Amino acid sequence: EVQPTTTGTQPRSIQLDVGAAEAADKSVDLPIDQREIVFDCRQLGVRYGGVRALRDVDLNIHRNTLTALIGPSGCGKSTFLRCLNRMNDLIPTARVEGMVRYHGVDLYGSDIDSVQVRKRIGMVFQKPNPFPKSIYDNIAFGPKVLGMKGSMDQIVEQALRRASLWDDVKDRLKDNAFGMSGGQQQRLCIARALATNPDVLLMDEPCSALDPISTGRIEDLMHELKETVSIVIVTHNMQQAARVSDRTAFFIVDMGSSEEARIGRLVEYGPTDRIFTNPHDTRTEEYVSGKFG
């Protein structure tokens, strides 16, 4: 179980290998199983206030892949996702068990700086949540807080271009972000996450509040982004998972002795094509075919 450090050791940043960027460029040409492992999860579990919510998750997530997490409500998909950038640290009653290695580094080591973790591993939430600031200041916020060097104008423009939003907003960067459409706000949140140049992007149902056209644009964007970042997405939309992901993980709820004792666990993980057309577990087949969930 992960416990807060009680030593006087200063937390350190996660440092990637010098050749990480070059490896990312080359890895897209390799079969997924031959790419570098970004996350290595072993016996990963989570408890809230002593109550187990997720148990015994074993899986690897590879570089420059888009991994979808699917399963019925309450099965631990979002809980697992938050383990990957230590967002569960912000919940006082949460305790993470097992191991998560990020590029071979123990993500929950007592000397790891969780703020730097979230710089490397960005997150986009279910509903667009822009800050009550200008479009420009939304993007510049993270780089300023982290003290990133270089031209802030260039950082903002690059992030907006990567999120396919630059042409829409380049003439109104000083306008309040709340004046944007829902789809634009979600792409702004993606741009805000990209502004700190993350290695991984976590997305928790990023299209659930969007119309079909906006959803299509976000999906196209995910395809483009996985050339440079690794993406993990939680989705309830089976068609979306089949369209956009390379690998799919199916989670299920184990019911305990009472309704409160709902424990999520991983049932099956593999190539998306196989998960949807020839799953190994009958529960996976029943879920993806709509028989339950």
Beta content comes to 15-25%
Q: Trace the largest sheet across and list its strands.
A: 5-4-1-2-10-9-3-8-7-6
Rg measurement, Å: 19 Å
**Distinct helical segment count:** 11
The total beta strand count reads: 10
Low-confidence stretches: 1-11, 16-22
Largest sheet data: 10 strands, mixed
Structural class: alpha/beta
End-to-end Cα distance:
31 Å
How would you describe this structure in keywords?
ten-stranded mixed sheet, 293 residues, 11 helices, single chain, alpha/beta
Folded structure, characterized:
Helix 4 (135-145) crosses helix 5 and helix 4 packs parallel to helix 7. The longest helix has 14 residues, at 212-225. The chain has helices at 20-27, 77-83, 114-120, 135-145, 152-162, 166-169, 182-194, 212-225, 238-244, 272-277, 282-288, and strands at residues 37-48, 51-62, 66-70, 94-102, 105-106, 121-124, 200-204, 230-234, 247-255, 262-271. It has a ten-stranded mixed β-sheet, with helices on both faces. It is globular. Helix 8 links the parallel strand 7 and strand 8 (230-234). The two termini are 31 Å apart. The chain is of the alpha/beta class and 293 residues long.
Note the topology.
Layout: H1 20-27, E1 37-48, E2 51-62, E3 66-70, H2 77-83, E4 94-102, E5 105-106, H3 114-120, E6 121-124, H4 135-145, H5 152-162, H6 166-169, H7 182-194, E7 200-204, H8 212-225, E8 230-234, H9 238-244, E9 247-255, E10 262-271, H10 272-277, H11 282-288
Parallel strand pairs: 2-10, 3-8, 3-9, 6-7, 7-8
Antiparallel strand pairs: 1-2, 1-4, 4-5, 9-10
